[in-house]
Amino acid sequence: MNPIWRLVSNSWHLIFDGDDTLWDCSPVYQALDQQCLDIIQASWPAGTKVDREVLKTARHDCQVALHDRRGHSLDLYPNAWVQAYRWYAARHHVISRRDIEHALLVTASRFQTAQYPLFDEVVETLEELVDDGHELDMLTLGDDDLQRKKVRDNGLSRFFPPERIHVIQDTKGPIMRLISQHGPVGHVVMVGDSMKGDIIPALNLGLSAIWVKNNHPTWMPAKKSPPAGQMITISHLRDVPLALTVLHPRP
Predict the structure, then answer these.
(1) Residue 17 — left, alpha, or beta (φ > 0 → left; ψ -120 to 50 → alpha)?
(2) What is the DSSP code (8-state) at residue 109?
(3) Partner of 202 for a Cys bridge, out of 15, 123, 178, 209, CB 3.0 to 4.6 A?
């Protein structure tokens, strides 16, 4: 698209997050969490129950700590469950078992072959945006092969061809900066569900942002408020076209 045309139009260059913005990851991880908890419970001394909420919190904390140390990897979630199990067993003076650790690794790794359903009206919304002349890119955290598979499985390749999909293992800011160099910064907007991972980095770069606050749990919540900038909060992805009418492109 001609950048000069964009300067005199209301066209936007939208950068979409994938997980929990376009497709729903919660059912997959909630089911796997329960299966991992069942494995630990079955291994526990007879007549006693594990505290499932404490274990889920421990898995979350382990996952965040692992991510902070080495970024994203496919074994992040499975290893977080193993570490949570070891911590919980030591806390209760129970000897951790290698067969249980192996079972947790195998079970938690099933997220790689799961199906991730689109949120309601995603396809219709993307069609409307393309018809209105907006450019679309995807910038998402995760494993490159897995994230691209989610795009293909959900029939989104017509909106996000391979060259428009950017998969990273750490902070999104540097790639946002590169994408925004294809046109005026004032015409670029980040669309995502994560305040920490999507919205704050965009506002820090002077981009606009649409926060899809869908009330899904996030495993990396923001610890600070967003900086000043042009941000719209919506509850459903279908509201993106309307949000764009409120934002003001800047030259």
Answers:
(1) beta
(2) G
(3) 209
**Could you tell me how far CA 85 lies from the centroid of its own chain?**
25
Burial of 137 (0-12, 13-18, 19+ CB in 10 A): buried
Return the closest-CA partner of residue 23 out of 108, 125, 176: 125
| pLDDT > 70 in the chain, percent | 90
Say how far apart CA 229 and CA 6 lie, in whole Å: 21
**Run of H or E residues at 155:** none
Two tokens at 72?
A: 């994203």
Q: pLDDT tens digit string along 44-54?
A: 999 899 999 99
Tell me how far apart the 2 most distant CA atoms of the chain are, in Å.
72
Average predicted confidence (pLDDT) for the chain: 90
Query: Which helix (H) or strand (E) covers residue 231, if one does?
Result: strand 231-234
Q: For residue 134, what are the contacts with CB-CB under 8 A and spacing of at least 6?
A: 11, 12, 13, 14, 244
3-state SS record for 162-219 = HHHEEEECCCCHHHHHHHHCCCCHHHEEEEECCHHHHHHHHHHCCCEEEEECCCCCCC
pTM of the entire structure?
A: 0.87
* Both structure tokens of 5: 């045309």
Look at residue 202 and tell me whether its pLDDT is greater than 80: yes
Phi, psi of 120 (to 5 degrees): -60, 135
For the chain, the first-to-last Cα distance in angstroms comes to: 16
Question: In one letter, which amino acid is 126?
Answer: L
**233, containing H or E segment:** strand 231-234
